[in-house]
Write a structure and sequence with these properties.
about 650 residues; alpha/beta; seven-stranded mixed β-sheet; six-stranded mixed β-sheet; binds pyridoxal-5'-phosphate
Length: about 650
């Protein structure tokens, strides 16, 4: 196949654009997608008769059916236009959403016309292969050995996390099952409970090979938790940061592991997992003889975009293995920021040295000279991803691909045998053949993954995106850098913004300092207000005015999202920021929660400083208008209260 990796790519040419700037091209290609499919149909056995004649097509009820089709589509269109969220616009700065890649939308529609089902290759001879290739692309981006790794598409990060925990759970019980099996147990050097429950992932996977050689694997597999169920609490604790996505709670519930077996790792002042406390918790679990089912690190937390110190977690595992003979599974939840790993890879998929990287960013115009990204420890975290056992990543977030596209990558594909539902030897062949992209094979994705029937169109969308936008510094690197640049400028502008004077009141806008990724949390503060509760109230009401909750998504001039940083999730870390804003510690102790406006800045449109400056001016006016609206409402309210009082 052609290597596109070195061709020049223009970011604006990737998207339909906020004004549908690429309308002509997009329409032409959309028509191409549909026309090609219609040719495909009509060219299939031209000797077959037409089943509907022209005369029949003029029959009244036939016409009527078509008119009603049109009518319903009119209705749907008007509903969509009225209440959908304008993600394509830089005026939308909220969840991890932006314009989606034209190529993915087109590839999706093109493939969707053929209605492939990636559950089995039998029903998706083309798109199953594309899914395996797209999965391999992601594995390569993370630095996994393409000959050993395996990745596939899921409906989203949630299901990818379920699958990560599923393999972690099953692998934990394999040594226990081996110990129970009369012939298999010779394979174990040490069958103490401690040894069985604290094995290295790679050692367990080697045991699978041994079991297969002896023809015992399938028997033993049925003696794992998959056959015998989960013994309450025996598999130990899942360690996840306090800042976790709630899919981890659901995962523990669904997999029968119990939410009570979650140990939450506290976060530090930068909202990352506090590595010192993590070490202490891990050591104390080891001391108590409690096994660790898995540790999850988050690369791009959903609320603050924090990137956990993956390198330190990997190092901690090494230390535990060396000092205590204890190991554990490591899963990375990189649903949000995973695609940013592309920013570190050169045209030959090599991880670029830090200094070279920063130089290239600036010399090749990927970042302007005033933006330095990433922080050195964030760099180290991305570099360490290749050591993790599995990684969740969402193409439908920072991959700019339409829903529903999540993905999971696993470092060593032998692990799939623990969850797969075909005879173990088949998968070996299947992965082999999938890699060779041999269209003749019968790959059964549905029997090796969480889901069953699934859209082949999604695979086409992800695959096509990766072909046009390479997973390296010049491809996704450029697109993601646009959002990061804008996020940096936005924080700058907010923190240097003059106060808003509305009637006799004054409001400041404040951004939380230097996030690891492009999540900007910001808030308004009334000058002179010392009540944190009132502060939260103010921002909550602003959110309502700047969100779909205002009931006017399309006519609204700005849309954002919001979240509460609570002590439950973040300990006392938000207190520092509250202090900086002038709230006393007593206020924090009383309220235990800081309400913030939350903007994932993914737009590609504002990477030019002039565009940004003009946009910021407009945004300032918008904010002023929203504050005015809020005060008008307040005045009206006090006025009517006074009336009632009279
Ligand atoms: C978005 C997100 C998820 C869930 O992914 P979905 O695609 O919404 O299912 C999980 N973890 C993190 C960190 C996320 O940001």
């Amino acid at each position: 196949m052609t290597n596109f990796n070195n061709s020049k790519m223009n970011v604006d040419a990737l998207f339909l654009g906020p004004k549908s700037e690429n309308a002509v091209f997009f329409r032409e290609m959309m028509e191409y997608a549909v026309t090609e499919h219609m040719h495909w149909r009509s060219g299939y056995h031209p000797e077959d008769p037409e089943y509907v004649t022209t005369v029949e097509r003029y029959a009244p009820e036939y016409r009527d059916t078509l008119y009603r089709t049109e009518g319903i589509l009119n209705q749907l269109s008007s509903k969509l236009k009225t209440t959908s969220i304008p993600w394509f616009s830089p005026r939308y700065l909220g969840h991890m959403n932006a314009d989606t890649l034209m190529i993915s939308n087109l590839a999706y529609v093109m493939a969707m016309m053929y209605n492939p089902n990636n559950c089995a290759q039998e029903s998706s001879p083309t798109t199953t292969v594309l899914e395996l290739e797209a999965g391999a692309d992601l594995c390569a981006m993370f630095g996994y050995d393409p000959n050993r790794a395996w990745g596939h598409i899921t409906s989203g990060g949630t299901v990818a996390n379920y699958e990560g925990l599923w393999v972690a759970r099953n692998i934990k019980t394999l040594p226990l099952a081996i110990a129970k099996h009369p012939q298999a147990k010779q394979l174990l050097k040490d069958s103490s409970e401690k040894a069985l429950l604290n094995m290295q992932t790679s050692a367990v996977l080697d045991l699978i090979d041994e079991l297969k050689k002896r023809g015992l694997f399938e028997d033993v597999r049925e003696m794992t938790c998959r056959g015998e169920g989960v013994e309450q609490g025996r598999l130990g604790k899942l360690l996840v940061p306090q800042s976790k996505h709630y899919s981890w709670l659901k995962a523990m519930d669904i997999l029968g592991l119990g939410q009570q077996n979650i140990v939450q790792l506290p976060v530090d002042g930068s909202y990352r997992t506090d590595t010192d406390q993590m070490r202490q918790i891990v050591f104390s679990l080891i001391e108590r003889g409690e096994p660790i089912l898995a540790i999850v690190a988050v690369v791009g937390t959903t609320e603050t975009g924090a990137i956990d110190n993956v390198a330190e977690l990997i190092e901690l595992r090494r230390e535990c293995e060396a000092r205590f003979g204890v190991s554990f599974y490591i899963h990375i939840d990189a649903a949000y920021a995973g695609y940013a790993c592309a920013m570190f890879r050169d045209e030959n998929n090599q991880f670029i040295e830090y200094d070279t990287l920063i130089k290239r960013y600036h010399s090749e115009g990927i970042f302007p000279s005033d933006v330095i990204w990433p922080k050195p420890d964030v760099y180290q975290s991305f570099k360490a991803l290749q050591e993790a056992d599995s990684i969740t990543v969402d193409p439908h977030k920072v991959g700019f691909i339409p829903y529903a596209a999540g993905a999971i990558c696993m470092k060593d594909k032998r692990i799939v045998d623990l969850i797969s539902y075909h005879a173990a030897y088949v998968f070996e062949e299947v992965a082999e053949k999938g890699r060779k992209a041999d269209k003749q094979q019968n790959v059964l994705l549905g029997s090796s993954i969480m889901e069953g029937s699934k859209a082949g169109a999604t695979a086409a969308a992800v695959w096509a995106a990766h072909r046009l936008v390479p997973l390296n510094i010049l491809g996704y690197g450029k697109v993601i850098a646009a959002g990061l640049t804008t996020a940096n400028w936005m924080i700058e502008s907010m923190n240097h913004c003059d106060v808003f004077k509305i009637e006799d009141r004054e409001f400041q806008i404040v951004a939380m300092p230097s996030p690891d990724f492009h999540m900007v949390n910001f808030m308004f503060k009334e000058v002179g207000n010392s009540s944190l509760e009132r502060q939260n109230q103010l921002n909550k009401r602003l959110y309502e005015l700047c969100s779909y909750a205002a009931g006017r998504s399309y006519t609204n001039n700005f849309l954002t999202s919001s979240t509460s940083l609570t002590s439950e999730e973040y300990g006392n870390n938000p207190r520092n920021f509250c202090r900086e804003m002038g709230f006393s510690d007593q206020e924090w102790d009383k309220t235990q929660s800081l309400y913030v406006l939350r903007a994932a800045i993914m737009t590609h449109c504002l990477r030019d400083k002039q565009h940004f400056t003009a946009f910021w001016e407009e945004l300032r006016n918008i904010f002023e208008g929203k504050l005015q609206q809020l005060i008008d409402e307040e005045n009206k309210l006090t006025h009517s209260k006074q009336k009632i009082a009279l």
